[in-house]
Design goal:
The structure holds 2 protein chains of 2 kinds. By secondary structure, chain A is an alpha/beta fold. Helices cover 26% and strands 23% of the residues of chain A. Chain A has helices spanning 28-43, 104-116, 136-148, and strands at 3-6, 20-23, 62-63, 74-77, 81-84, 87-91, 125-130, 153-160. In chain A, strand 5 and strand 6 form a beta hairpin. The chains are: A alpha/beta, B alpha/beta.
């Protein structure tokens, strides 16, 4: 960690300046920064990590709830469409003003998901990932469709407030 | 033996009397191992850090919408209901309006809601259950905030329902 600098062109006496000077960079501040960073990262270290990855195109609402999410089927409601695992099921514009509350495309998709998960104990659970600015009119229609497809346990994914 | 002792004492006195600049020059700390450790540890910790914590908020739907609640045939008990409208929050018990909380500076009075719910909970027929009835135009973030306050006030089971415009009067 030291750099050897040979200084030339200076007229010095043997007593005041040596021929070769060892230049040592000041690393104290760098180590200080590294130490603070290390403490912060150890504090936010999580062995489990997040088992649920929220959709990237929506902002989840904030909540003080501390209940950990489980891996169950989820419906993502972005500003443009209703999706699941990133795939668009139905655009919001196609049902938001409809008289019928049930969304046919979502209903058939959810029935299919229930048939696929028929051998597990989580067939009645569904998690809603909704954008924080989505009006309740859209969420209401999605929930109604879920209930018609036989889902009874609902949860909404949120970002935990500190 | 005393000669050696005297020599050691002289050396010690010399070290004590050295100027600080001279003593600092002689300490040569090798920080290479600690820097190497930092360089290995930091990328690992950055990759494993969880900066946003995700959680869930559980709720149920009204019995006439959901299929999981059985009809017991008993007279239904009156549950407290929080109506979330764009202009106000209201607490109702059955058809009776109990409290009405208008927006304060464009924000929902959530702390007042929690205080009122805590008071109302003591005289409620169903003390652990509440219904949050929401108007269509209300954004989801407000619904979650109201559900949070209901949970903070001690209501463990939260039902989510739709409130038709005009069913509950405002302030």
């Amino acid at each position: 960690m030291s750099i050897l600098i040979k200084r030339k062109g200076y007229a010095r006496t043997a007593e005041t300046a040596p021929e070769d000077t060892v230049f040592r960079p000041q690393l104290t501040s760098l180590i200080d920064v590294m130490t603070f960073l290390l403490v912060f990262l150890i504090k936010s270290f999580s062995v489990e990590g997040n088992i649920i990855t929220p959709a990237t195109n929506l902002q989840l609402p904030l909540s003080t709830s501390q209940k950990r999410p489980a891996v169950i089927p989820s419906i993502e409601i972005s500003r443009d469409a209703v999706m699941s695992e990133g795939a668009v099921i139905v655009p919001i514009g196609s049902f938001v003003n409809a008289e019928e509350l049930t969304i046919p495309a979502l209903h058939s998709w959810m029935l299919l998901q229930r048939q696929k998960a028929a051998d597990t104990a989580k067939t009645h659970q569904v998690m809603i990932q909704s954008d924080r600015d989505i009006p309740f009119n859209v969420v209401k229609r999605v929930l109604y469709t879920c209930s018609k497809a036989g889902y009874t346990d609902y949860s909404v994914l949120v970002i935990q407030k500190e | 033996m005393p000669v050696i002792r005297e020599k050691q004492m002289k050396q010690l006195t010399f070290i004590k009397n050295r100027p600080p600049s001279q003593s600092a020059e002689q300490i040569d700390l090798d920080v290479t191992p600690i820097m190497s450790m930092f360089l290995i540890l930091l990328p690992f910790l950055v990759s494993m850090a969880v900066l946003t914590h995700i959680s869930v908020l559980q709720f149920s739907l009204p019995p006439n919408v959901g299929t999981g609640l059985a009809d017991t045939g008993e007279k239904p008990k009156v549950k407290l209901t929080v109506v979330v409208a764009p202009e106000y929050l209201a607490i109702t018990g059955g058809a009776a309006m109990l409290d009405s909380l208008p927006l304060v500076d464009g924000l929902y009075p959530l702390d007042s809601l929690k205080a009122q719910l805590t008071i109302r909970k003591q005289s409620a027929q169903v003390a652990d259950e509440i219904i949050v009835a929401v108007r269509d135009v209300v954004a989801m973030k407000h619904v979650v905030s109201v559900m949070d306050k209901c949970r903070d006030a001690g209501f463990e089971k939260i039902g989510l329902s739709s409130a038709a415009a005009g069913t509950t009067g405002g302030p």
